[in-house]
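Hello again,

I reread your note about wanting to compare the complex against the isolated chains. To keep things tidy I'm splitting this into two emails, and this first one only covers the full assembly. Below are the input lines as submitted, including protein chains and any nucleic acid or small-molecule components. They are followed by the predicted structure of everything together. The single-chain runs will come separately.
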Amino acid sequence: MDLVKAARRGREHALLQLFDEHHLPLFRFAYRLTGSVADAEDIVQECFLTLLRPECSYDPGRTSVRTYLFGVVRNQSLKQRRKSDSASQNGLDARHERSPESQALRTELEEVVARAVTQLPETQREVLILAHFEQMPLAEIARVMALELGAVKSRLQRARASLKETLAEYAPGLERKR
Amino acid sequence: MNDTELDKILNSWSVPPAPPSLRERVRAGFAAGLGQETSPGVLRWTGAFVPSARTSLVAAAILSVGAFLLVVTLALPQTLGLGSPPVRIPYTVDSEFVRYAEDGSSSIEMYSTSYSLNGHEILLSRSLPGNLLGTAIGRTLDATLPYVSRLMSRLTVDAALLEKVRRAAAQAVTVITGGDEKTGLLLAHYGFARAAPGAGCLAGPIVGRETILNYPTVAVQRDDGGPQSPRMTLWTAPDLGCFALRITIEEKRPDGTFRLVSRKQALKVTMNR
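Full-complex prediction:
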């Protein structure tokens, strides 16, 4: 039986199987969008529970469960972002503030990359994360984001061009500017 | 910078591992959710007579050790219905429920008369001061919703899950904590794991002992472990079948301090000899 259908009928093992198969990339995606483990955890939990709701629009005939779940993570992250933005005038900065411990765990370069990606326009950031970090085919990204394939390609190109510029001084082999 | 160099730099951005608790949260949410909108990270204290919410939270209690949770009426009686067999009520407790606003001001939300049967608080009557219509509606809901709830639960909740819920609830101590925040019309009930035999009424850290209305009580503090979880402190009287003579509910502020949100206080104990 289809796992989603089984989970909706109350079969816990079906939901847990779905979770085991998909949660890692979803968590990575959510974390990279929000910059927070706690937010990513909330989003991924909500993402799986969304599948069980009667109003859930998942249609196996139209899309794979993986694509659907990535779409849910994206939407939940946007919601989270709006909440954070309205809660704080410095929304973006406040959201990406890290505890001293987590900052210490990161290398400087990692911090710079995270910041550079975070500063990309939203849709460029989402496309880049899915394409580069999740190695998701562009056609699937288009479905997750409800965009034309061409739009996905151009956003990815713009994101990469922008990052090349921002991160130029960190290119391997180049002397770092002080 | 070429594409390969960019890829190499991007790859330095690692992601912390997903917390192991995530799977358990999804699992608890599954038992709890079944179509419910959840508020990630925080369990909302919903009205106890909303069938799905109640079912979900007690179902989650089965899975979440140490959490305090709302109790289902399908599992336990919370009012004496018309069809209930005659019960000898050993005592009654009159209580007031006070709600505290952000600015520290307080208002009496409700008065109740209740007692405890096998560790489960049973409401006999209640009134909302200065709100005759609300009192009438509240009493009507108290009398009818448990039946609707049980019926709905039978139709919508898996029988095995219901049985688990019943078993878990039967082993708990349940208390009434007041009305819902918005209208006060829907009662909120919570269930807690019992302490080991001889160790008082409720499992959990003991934060004090006090005599209230001449009955010794043990104060136990509970929260559901979340970063923004509210905290509940209950003063239960072993001599009154674990009736909670005082309950305080505090919400956690972002700076980690707590704000008192509501308080239940026993005003009078009447023994029926």
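For quick reference: Chain A touches chain B through 44 residues (CB under 8 Å).

B.
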